[in-house]
Amino acid sequence: MPPRKNNEKGEREGARLEREALLRAIIETSPDGLITIDETGHIQSFNPAAARMFGYRAEEVIGRNVNCLMPSPDRERHDGYLARYLRTGERRIIGIGRKVNAQRRDGTVFPLELAVAEVVAGGHRLFAGFLHDISARRDAEQRMHELHSELLHVSRLSEMGEMASELAHELNQPLTAVINYMQACRRLLADRAAADAGRVGELIDKAIGQADRAGQIIQHLRRFIARGETDHSAEEISSVVEEAAQLALIGASERGIKAVFDLARGLPPVLIDRIQIQQVIINLVRNAVDALSGGGGDMTIRTALAGTDRVEIQVRDTGPGLDKEVAERLFQPFVTTKPGGIGIGLSICRTIVEAHDGKLWASDNPGGGTVFHLSLPLAASD
After folding, report:
1. pLDDT tier at 74, thresholds 50, 70, 90
2. Predicted TM-score of the model (pTM)
3. Domain 31-133 is found in CATH 3.40.50.10490
4. C-alpha–C-alpha distance, residues 68 and 75, integer Å
5. Are 370 and 321 in contact (CB under 8 A)?
6. How far is CA 107 from the centre of its chain?
7. Does an H or E element contain 288, and which?
8. Which of 130, 171, 179, 346 has the fewest CB atoms nearer than 10 Å to its CB?
9. What residue spans in the chain does CATH classification 3.30.565.10 cover?
10. CB atoms closer than 10 angstroms to residue 177
11. Does CATH number 3.30.565.10 belong to domain 233-377?
């Protein structure tokens, strides 16, 4: 009988050791940091992920106050937070979790998602902190915010430029007519012998001069807009399209819209102004979102090689399609299908695309809806 009890005891001990080994393996291989501290705030364990995250070796921090991993003012306040919890039991982070700032060995401050659990081991109360580095997420959010601001800025500049160009064209003709009319008036007055004819002629000369000056200003503005320089660089078009489309699709799923990406990877680079082309993509995708907003539907965003020297981007929707009359004038200024639109978005897009030696056009989607096509030349091999 005693041997059997010894066997059972040995099995339980073996099972316990196996569980402990498994737990250690999980902690050691966890991609997230795990730190345990005692009631005084001193570090008891520091797993490899935490070591990579903070730049310390475990033996360098075990036994030190955990506030050495915090920037000011949290460093100075942490002991007070812990003492208050031990005194009152009021939870402000334990079992709740929150975003906090931490400090690496080199002094770099970075954001963490921190969850804290309270455990009792060997009659001692410990606190386990589970740490997830969200630096990459924060940087991506910041980049998206900056990109959004840049795109909005480019949109405003483009709209002003397009409007100014159109006004230059429209106003140049009446200004020319004003000059002609005033010159005719001057000739008529020259034939009269009235005493004040000289004074009238002088005023008309001034009017002609001012009208001519206005015409020159408009012409200079138009030439400036027409040859505005852009910042071109070699870009992989699928990443450009994906980044812009993701921004344009914000809120689309709540409208019942399903977007599918069919992006060819490894395409040869194109020489473009990234921000301007992304403005075009955003405009096309938002137009598709608006077309599908009535009852939902599908959208496909595609990139592919077109021939040997171009890439093509397509934005397909299954919306109601384009009215034939509107389709014929779709890219002209002030033509719109939107009740509140002013009709310059697609005109701006075509201006941007043509400045890149590209082409922009629309066609009917065979399954119903509209397809916008954007074709761009590949960058020269040199």
Report:
1. confident
2. 0.46
3. no
4. 7
5. yes
6. 29
7. helix 274-292
8. 171
9. 233-377
10. 11
11. yes
CA distances to 38, 54, 198 from 46, in Å: 13, 10, 97
Identity of the highest mean pLDDT range in 123-137, 165-179, 207-221? 123-137
What is the model's pLDDT at position 161?
58
pLDDT of residue 315: 95
Query: How long a stretch of residues is the chain?
Result: 382
* Average pLDDT of the chain to the nearest whole number: 79
| Residue whose C-alpha is closest to residue 368's, from 312, 304, 299, 294 | 299
Contact 218, 167 (CB under 8 A): yes
The type of residue at 366 is P
Gap between the Cα atoms of 288 and 257, Å rounded: 10
List the single range of 10-24, 144-158, 239-253, 368-382 with lowest mean pLDDT.
Answer: 144-158
Q: With CA atoms as reference, report the closest residue to 293 among 337, 344, 346.
A: 337
φ, ψ at 352 (rounded to 5°): -65, -45
Look at domain 138-226 and name its CATH class.
Answer: mainly alpha
> Where are the domain boundaries for CATH 1.10.287.130 in the chain?
138-226
CB 349 within 8 A of CB 364: no
Tell me if 69 sits within 8 A of 103, measured CB to CB: yes
Per-residue pLDDT, 89: 75
The CB-side HSE value for 335 (13 A sphere, CA atoms) comes to 15
**Which residues fall within 8 angstroms of residue 203, CB to CB, at 6 or more apart?**
none
For the chain, what percent of residues have pLDDT higher than 70?
A: 74
Cα separations (Å) of 64 from 61, 127, 296?
5, 15, 58
Instruction: Name the more confident of 31 and 61.
Output: 61
